[in-house]
Each structure stands twice: as C-alpha cells, then as structure tokens.
Amino acid sequence: MSKIAIIAGAGPGTGAAIARRFAQVYPVILLSRSEHTLNPLVKDIKHNGGSAVGIPTDVASIPSMDSTLEQIKSNFGPDLTIAAAIFNVASKFSMKPFLEQSPEQFFGSIEPAVMGAFNFAQATLPFMLHGNKDRYSPTLIFTGATAALKGSSGLSAFAASKFGTRAMAQSLAREFGPKGVHVSHAIIDGIINTEMTKGFGQDIPDAKIEPQGIADTYWHLHTQPRSAFTHEIDIRPYSEKW
Amino acid sequence: MSKIAIIAGAGPGTGAAIARRFAQVYPVILLSRSEHTLNPLVKDIKHNGGSAVGIPTDVASIPSMDSTLEQIKSNFGPDLTIAAAIFNVASKFSMKPFLEQSPEQFFGSIEPAVMGAFNFAQATLPFMLHGNKDRYSPTLIFTGATAALKGSSGLSAFAASKFGTRAMAQSLAREFGPKGVHVSHAIIDGIINTEMTKGFGQDIPDAKIEPQGIADTYWHLHTQPRSAFTHEIDIRPYSEKW
Amino acid sequence: MSKIAIIAGAGPGTGAAIARRFAQVYPVILLSRSEHTLNPLVKDIKHNGGSAVGIPTDVASIPSMDSTLEQIKSNFGPDLTIAAAIFNVASKFSMKPFLEQSPEQFFGSIEPAVMGAFNFAQATLPFMLHGNKDRYSPTLIFTGATAALKGSSGLSAFAASKFGTRAMAQSLAREFGPKGVHVSHAIIDGIINTEMTKGFGQDIPDAKIEPQGIADTYWHLHTQPRSAFTHEIDIRPYSEKW
Amino acid sequence: MSKIAIIAGAGPGTGAAIARRFAQVYPVILLSRSEHTLNPLVKDIKHNGGSAVGIPTDVASIPSMDSTLEQIKSNFGPDLTIAAAIFNVASKFSMKPFLEQSPEQFFGSIEPAVMGAFNFAQATLPFMLHGNKDRYSPTLIFTGATAALKGSSGLSAFAASKFGTRAMAQSLAREFGPKGVHVSHAIIDGIINTEMTKGFGQDIPDAKIEPQGIADTYWHLHTQPRSAFTHEIDIRPYSEKW
To answer: Which InterPro entries match (chains A, B, C, D) (predicted)?
Structure first.
C-alpha cells in the first residue's frame, strides 16, 4: 500500500522547499498550474534520490482536480494513503481602493483560494482517513498569512480569502482531528525569500523568511503524535515587530 | 438633500427591528428577496408615522443591486446621503459532514454572503462619503455571528462566509474610517428570538436574543462620535456561557 | 431602597465624563486616591442637579476599600443596590527596556491594576446581585486598553496588568452573567483627549478620543437588556489605522 | 564557553520530558522547589549519558533565583551561554466562586506565575543575548494554557496569571526577537498525561497530551532558524473539540 505526500502550489520558493522536505520520506505529487514550474522541481528531487510526479492542475477546478486524482490512483493504486497534503496555493494579492475593485477582481481572488482549498481537502481527505494508525498521523496543512487574522485597508479580497481558508482549516480540524487526521493552519507573517522578492528589504540579514524554515516546521507538524497536535502556528522573521 | 437608511436582509426578526429603529429618524429602504416579506413591514412602519420603501432585491446579484440603486436615486435624488447601511443578510446555515457537502452547497453558502456584502458595500459607500460632516457619522454595519470567530465541525461553509465578511468589515473600517465613515461588525452570539426559533430553549427566560436589543445597539453605534467609534461588538444573552 | 453608581478612577477626563453621565440617573460615588481630584467633580455634578459623593480611596488596598464601603452603606443603607460599577483605574504606563525594569516597577504596575480590579469587583458585586430585576441590569465595566490584546516591546508590565484585568472581566462575565449582572470590558484604543494629552497629535481633528464618547457608550452598555448583553467593545478614533 | 539549557518547573511530567529532550544536546539545569523532585530526574538523565544539575529554587523569589544564578555561574563560568530557557512553572489552579476567593488565594495564584516569569526572564536573558550567532538561536519558552486565551467562570486568578504570562511573552518576543533571541509561548490545551492525572478520561486512547510530544515540539522551536521563528503554538490531543 503506497504512502504519498501531495503539495498544491508547488511553485518555486515555499512549495518547492516543502516538496523537497517531504520527498526525503515519501514519493511526492506536485501540483501547479504550469508544467513549466513543475519540471525542474521534479528533476531536482529525482536527482537527489527522491520520487516525484508533477501534474499540472488547477485546484480550483473540480474537473482538473478529479482528473489529477485519477492519475494518482492509477499510478499508486486505488488504496493509496495520503500521508501529508499541503495546500500552499497563493491567493492573488492586490492592494486597491475598495471602490475601484471590480467584482471580477474580488472574486477572482477569493474563488481560487477558497474553492481551491475546498476541492483539495475534499479530494485528499478520503485517502487520509485510513492512515490514522501510521507512525505519523496523516496531515493536512494550509498555508495562511497575516491577512488571515487582520483585514488591512485595500486588501478586502485577499483578507476574505485568507480568513475563509482559516475558517475551513478550523472546521476540518474539529471534524477530522477525532478521526486521527491532523489539520493545521500556518500563519506566514513576513516576506518569503524567493526569486520574486529579491529586491525587497535587503538591509537586515535573514529578515525574509527562508522557505526551508517553513518546510522544516511543516515536517515537524507532520511528526507530532496525535496526543499533541498543533493546529495553528505563526512563522515570522526575528526582525519583525508585528 | 435626502438622508436615508438602507437595510439589506430586512426580513422578520432582526432586520425588521433594525428597520423600525432607524425609521424613527430616517426614511428607510428595505431590501429582501421577497416582496412578501417586505410589505407588512413597510405597512407597519408607515402606520407608526415612519417612511419606508421596500425593494425586492437579491444583493448577491449585481444587476439586481444596480436596479435597486437606480430606483433609490430616482426616489430621493442622485445626491442623496446614506446615513446608515446595514448588511443583515443571513448566510445559509447547514451543518453537514464535510465529505458529504457538494461544491454547489459550499459555494451556495459563501457566494450570497460574501458577494452580497461586497455588492452592498460597493453600492452604498459612494453615498456615505459626503455625509461625514453630519451629526451622526455615516455608518455601515455588518451582522456577523459566532462563526465569524470560530469554525465548528461541519460548518466550514457557514464559517468561511462569516470569517470572510468579517475580513471585509475590517478592511473597510481601516480604509473608510479615516474618511469619516463608521464601519462596524457585530458578532451575534446566540439564538435570536423570532417566529422561526419559537421551539428552541424555552426554559430560561430571555435566553434568546431580542431583536430589539440588537436594533438599539446598532442605533447606538450610529450615534457614536467619530472620535469614539466602535468597530467590533458582541451581543449575547446573559445566560450564555460562551 | 437606594440605587447608586460607583466609579473607581474618577479622575479628570474619562472618569469625570462617566461620572457626569451616570449622575444624570443615579447618585454617584466617586473614588480616587486624592480628595483634590474629587472635589471639583463632586461640586460640578451637584451644580448640575446631580447627587455625588467623593471618597478618597486606594482601591488596591483592602482596608481602604472596606472603609469606603462602610461609608457607602452608612450613607445609603445596607440594602443599597449598585446599579453600575465602573473600574476606570489607570495602570502605570512606563515603556522601558525589560532588563532595566526593577521588580518593584514591574509589580508596582501590576498590583494596583489587578489587585484594584479584584478588590473593586469583590466589594461591589454583592450589592449588584439583587438588582437583576431592575429596568437596567446591574453593570460592571472595566476600562481596558490596546495593551489588553497585544504586549508591545518595553511594555510587559503594562500589558500584563491589562491582559490580567481582561481575564478577570471574562471570568466574571461567565460567572455573573447567568445571575443577571452585566460584565463588560472596553478596549480604549487611542489617546484620550484630556488636559494631560493636550500636546499630542493636534494635526488631525477629533483624532483623540473624547471622554464623552466613552461615557455615552458605557451608558449604552448599561441600558442593554439582558437578552442582548455586550461583553467586549473597542473604542477608537476614526483616524486610527490600528 | 559553556552552553546550557535551564528548565524552571522541572517536576515530573512535562518538565521532566523537556529536561530529558534538551539534555540530549546540552547540560541541563533543573529548577524546582523541592530537591525531592529533582533528584530522581537528575539521576535518570545522568544514567542516560546526559549532564544535569538540580538546584532547588523558588523562581518567584528574587533572592532564591539570585543564589541559583550564582551557583550556575560558579559551575559553568560567568561567560556561559543559556541556549534554552524554559519556564514551565504551574499556576495554582483552583476553581471557586469569585466571592468566596480571598485576596490571599487570588494573589497566591498570580504572584508565583507572573513574578516567577518575570524573575526567570530577567535572570536568563542576559546570558542569551550573546548566543545569537549560534547554530540554534537562544530560545525562551513559556508554557501557557487554554486559560491564557479564555477566562472561565470561577477561574479568574488562574486566567489572570496565564493571560499575564502571555502578555509578557509577547512583549519579550517583540523586544528580544530583533536581538536574535527566540521567545515563544505554547498554549497547552488539554490534560497532560502524568501520574497525577491517571484517573481522568481513560476511555479514549491518547486523549491526554503526552509530555514527550510537548518536549519534541519545544525542541523543534529551539531549532527554528531566525528567519522563521514561531511565537505562539497550540498543543492539544486529536480528540479535543476545543
């Protein structure tokens, strides 16, 4: 019976770091919209002795997610166990005066995040339930943000999607915890150190969150015994006053 | 220049009590999906010397909300001031195991609430901004619930919609507060005493929230001077342990 | 049977505004360390037709609080009802690097606040319980601050005292709510406009909280029916981004 | 230059598990009121190849804490580094109607907790600051409880002490984080599986928190790189609905 980890939002940066960390123990399935993103990561994990499959997927689309699941089942058998499922899909971040936002922009931010989280949880949880006797409890982690706790000016869409995902994480933890599934929500509070953020805040060393740090903490969450689950955790650089 | 109050979700119960309270001072516009709901309330307010117009509206629909606004402008003139806008639309509440929820059910709960709150705020705020020199600051209030703070088992859709509305209320408060608009979010924590809840919890007197109490507190929020705005408030019966 | 209101921390500013507001309905007992502070306020309230008694009291001292209660009972009879008790005593605010704080400074900040809140609640609650059939439920309000929610750098003593008072307010609400006593906690989030703060932030009009606004909201809390109590409320100027 | 870990509240149960975990890497100093508690733990750690010193200490007493520090300095040299300091001292838990609590009981609960946390932080932080270039950032962890977030009926003293400690943890994180010290607060939400709790809740397996789980998570916090510190974390059994 196969045990795998699945990472949605396996782009460069945090997603890639999480994928590499879990690939040290499990075959990993990597989801991202673009094959372009997935290929170098799959190659890199294989090069380091891991097992990885990239499947271009739009997690906010039910048909796309369904077809991805079919592919996973045909690869690993229908009785596979998902040991870890990480929802790391970014919400669209656009700061804009509220009255200048179009409904399309507003829902274009909320739908992928909340619809994506819903689809991902519905697709993966059925394969997590029977893993609850394993050494490490099956673990579903949602990557959140400061905006999951605080709605800032001009960020109503982003905040609504992050608040919404947090609500779902809480509901799932309370429903699936007693069934042995570990559901966590991580509040990433700071700029993550990636190619994209190269230009920001260079003055203070280590003031941007290293993706590796996030990945190691996600792994730790996965290893917690069921008598000592963490549901919510914040991660921020030492330099942050917050 | 006309000054009005507008209440979305002007059904029986809380919406009606709010409408009656604000009708003591302003002409009130009452929105609800069904004319059936609006008529007796409009009649009752007029009977008591107030001024009320009921406009059947689906606030989650942009065309419906647009047409409602056109009607308001033609009634009160295009330079009307909205002194108070109350978003009191109920989210669908259905407790159900997560894996038995269909995407339609899930989004059928989130869309009306979050889309409705978005449309309502976008439609009313432009008519609130120039009221910021009035005796009472223009006030936009969102009715929330316990589920805005806590995602319970089986309630992920309901909680996501309430968390999402709270996120929007916070963002709007931070953006429009400095422009003199008072944005508040009320956490109604308990069963409201209405026709629908007649059968529940009859043993302890006053253990259900009286709509009149909510209405009086909403009115108080409206009267707060801009140096002392309240953004978030909880309302619950004395008997609640919470 | 007499009904009175009692305000601890009846200094100039917020305490005085609260006293004047409640004196419109009840005889008020004003507590403050210095007679000097109390006299002009007592005079002013009487001048406006109210009834007021000032009793110099250190609420953090049990003997002082006991003697004050004896005086109140001899004035109003032993079966008096305390309709409203407001704990408005300031905590010492001193921002200082943690390693430079002496234990005396640290506890000199916590003790008056937390000990004072404890003494005040123990002294007043016994006279509130039998008032639970009155038109307005007996009400115990604690004035809190932003530091009740957030411990800032250099403010550990101030924050610990404000967090501690908030903890007590919650515990008392859960214990005495079901007995008909309304216990509230107000988070005052901003600079209050008093003699002392005259020099601060003069550029934006109304950017400092008017004591009158706080007083009116406290009065509103007192008038809430028991089916619709508010436990926690924030109060801040419109200009605050928070 | 010596590097050590110090654990206050090194009683059986959580304290002992933490001590054993950190003793795998550092010499550990164990503080507890009674030598009786310390001796078997010291012996056990040594037996497993670790290094441990037990020093009977009342952390709420400044002279006692001072004398303990002198002893540590004479053992490890005055330029020692405290790599990890864990404040795991229990607050007195007594559920009691508020009006039956004596001031002595109330402050007998708050003082040891808050005074103890203050003394411990003041004593250890000066030896943590120069460790900020080490592989693992110097780490100060406070063990909290559900009562740090919620004041329950009859538990005002316990809650005030836990809220107060949390306030201090936040203030210290904001002050010492930028100096490279990792300050964390753990919310232990459930019954811990110890000798004392043997009789409780036996029906559901693993429904009590294993001390080992707490210890492993504390160790993980210690290993987080400074770009990805966690300040607050909850730990609860999977079976908890919370």
So the answer is: NAD(P)-bd_dom_sf, SDR_fam
> Which residues in A156-205 belong to E strands, given as ranges?
182-188
Instruction: With respect to residue C71, please indicate whether it lies within any of the assigned structural domains.
Output: yes
Calpha distance D218→A178 (Å, rounded): 24
The domain tally of chain A equals 1
Mean pLDDT value across chain B: 95
Span B36-47, pLDDT tens digits: 999 999 999 999
Q: Which residues of C touch B208 (CB under 8 A)?
A: 227
Nearest-CA distance C173 → chain D (Å): 8
**Which residue among C180, C182, C228 sits closest to B209, beta carbon to beta carbon?**
C228
Which residue stretches of chain A have pLDDT < 50?
none
Given CA atoms B186, B187, B190, B192 in this order, what sign does their dihedral have? positive
Domain annotation covers residue A27: yes
pLDDT tens-place string over residues B179-232? 999 999 999 999 999 988 888 876 899 999 999 999 999 999 999 999 999 999
Which is it for strands C3-8 and D81-87: parallel, antiparallel or unpaired?
Answer: unpaired
Residue B50 structure tokens: 């107030």
d(CA B101, CA B94): 10
In chain D, what residues touch A232 (CB-CB under 8 Å)?
233-234
Contacts of B55 (CB under 8 A, 6+ apart): B29, B30, B31, B38, B68, B71, B72
- For position B125, which CATH number holds? 3.40.50.720
Q: Are D52 and D28 in contact (CB under 8 A)?
A: yes
Distance between CA atoms of residues C190 and C202, nearest Å: 14
The chain C residues in contact with chain B (CB within 8 A) are 137, 174, 177-178, 180, 182, 193, 206-210, 212-214, 216-217, 220, 223-242
Q: Is residue B240 part of a domain?
A: no
Task: Give the per-residue pLDDT at C108.
Answer: 86
Q: Output DSSP code: residue D71.
A: H
Classify residue D228: in a domain, yes or no: yes
Residues of chain B that touch chain A, judged by Cβ-Cβ distance less than 8 Å: 62, 97-99, 101, 103, 106-107, 110, 114-115, 118-119, 121-122, 125-126, 147, 150-156, 159-172, 174-176
Q: What are the tens digits of pLDDT across the range C168-210?
A: 999 999 999 999 999 999 999 999 999 888 888 768 999 999 9
Domain that holds residue A14: 3-235
Does the complex come out with an ipTM higher than 0.90?
yes
Radius of gyration for chain C, computed over Cα atoms and rounded to the nearest angstrom: 17
